[in-house]
Design a protein that fits this description.
single chain, alpha/beta, Four Helix Bundle (Hemerythrin (Met), subunit A), Rossmann fold, 8-stranded mixed beta sheet, binds guanosine-5'-diphosphate
Length: about 450
Amino acid sequence: MAFDGLAEKLQNTFKNLRGKGKLNESDVKSAMREVKLALLEADVNFKIVKDFIKKVNERAIGQEVLNSLTPGQQVIKIVNEELTELMGQTQSKIDFSANPTILMMVGLQGAGKTTTSGKLGNILKKKGKNPLLVACDVYRPAAIKQLEVVGKSLDIPVFSMGDKLSPVDIAKAALKHAVKNNNDLIIIDTAGRLHIDDNLMVELEDIKSSVKPSEILLVVDSMTGQDAVNVAEVFNERLGIDGLILTKLDGDTRGGAALSVRAVTGKPIKFACVGEKLTDIEEFHPDRMASRILGMGDVLTLIEKAQESFDEDKVKKLERKMKSNDFDLEDFLDQLQQMKKMGPLSDILGMLPGMNNKALKNIEVDDKEFLRLEAIIQSMTPKERKNTNVINSNRKKRIASGSGTKVQDVNKLLKQFSQTKKMMKQFTGMEKKMKKGGKLK
Ligand code: GDP
């Protein structure tokens, strides 16, 4: 999970503060020393750490904190607010006022530009855009093919003209193509280099002046910490970027780039990528990220993920079935599959308040269990799924061998299912009673 190392250290520091009934100046100062160390170890820019600690100290040592009934909480609140401020205060959105909107993706080779172009197209398509991906990376072998594969798997058209023409010509032709085909969003995947070099910058400047992108988005690998911040400074000076997309946040335990890049460049982080799958992209919300780092959870992102993953018609059907008490294993399977779409269980649980790394380790977070349950249900006949009463011991043996599990596993699943059903019955019964009593609408 992103920021694990930093989150754990900060949470430990604050656990000590929370435990104290009253705080004095030296308590706050020593906590802030720990916060400072944690931020430096997380590879946050030194000057930014210094300013940050100064601001928090000034606010935290103020009378209203030390005299308050919950001084520890007040300090955490201040740190939360200042972390949020550091990352840009509010969510920064893409400006879609131009039609078509042209997003030019830039960054070093390997940062994740091509993958991110696809991810971005996908998340914006879900919001109603009609994107066109444009392959302008004519240098990296296989970059064009890679974009085509990404586009195909997302059902997003890809405009390419091979690697013989100049990126400027390709970009211009793509623009015409998009207008003709009603694509209101153009995402241009440009070439990167292993290091910043002048040729690259000149080429990007040429594309910029010829297609006049609505936004230039810099893709940086957050795992490279301060290097990513330095790269961002140079790209911003040369090209004038409009925002950043951080990739590989899933592997970034430190968080230095995410915490410093906004303050150093003055440009907002617009999206964060958290895995290799094409759905592993999130809008970047500074306040939610700060809460996650401090172990306060990110319930809002969790709700959004659920809304995206759950099919509304299926939810309605499920509700009806719950009410009429004919929820069967087919529905159970459906539910499992929809939950799986939300991502690994550990990531989902990680967004709940109080769920730090340690807490997660204590819970058996086993995504394989999902697969096992799925395999067992899939080995049942439709009749068995509708009515579990027909599953006698012979059938259990057949289901176990068909799903590569044991009879005990089948029994466990049947028990879980019957408990779920019982719970649903109680719940709907309760709801009916409350309705009768006029307590609910
Ligand atoms: P490009 O050279 O900038 O176009 O980079 P690519 O899009 O080819 O990505 C380089 C590598 O990083 C690929 O193996 C991607 O799968 C991987 N990658 C990109 N984004 C992420 C991410 O958010 N998390 C992880 N774990 N891997 C990523």
